[in-house]
Amino acid sequence: MAGFYADDAEVMAPDSQPVRGRDGVEAFFKAAAEGARRAGMRRTIHVRRVERSGDLGYVLSTVVLEFPAAGGQATTTFNDVTVWRLEHGEGWSIVVDSANRTAPPPPPPSRLGA
Q: pLDDT (tens digit, 9 = 90+) per residue, 97-114?
């Protein structure tokens, strides 16, 4: 996944500090993928719009995460924008990836007796 990102890329994910540079992006997505695997999460990306002007472009998308929860499935939805830059001789790379949750996260499960 990190191969799509430029060396100077920045990822701004909800509930996280910004992550900068390809090594940071790679570590971020590796940890996110491992957490999603352990949780049995499924991710679906719906591309809403793609635009380009010169050496820059952007993609607007909706990301839906589905994961097992007490009583069935839980869903969290994010709006996402990625900014792409044409790296001459190398193709397109993501330089900014920013997401925000469309609603607050669900509260944690209550702890009986706590």
A: 999 999 766 666 666 655
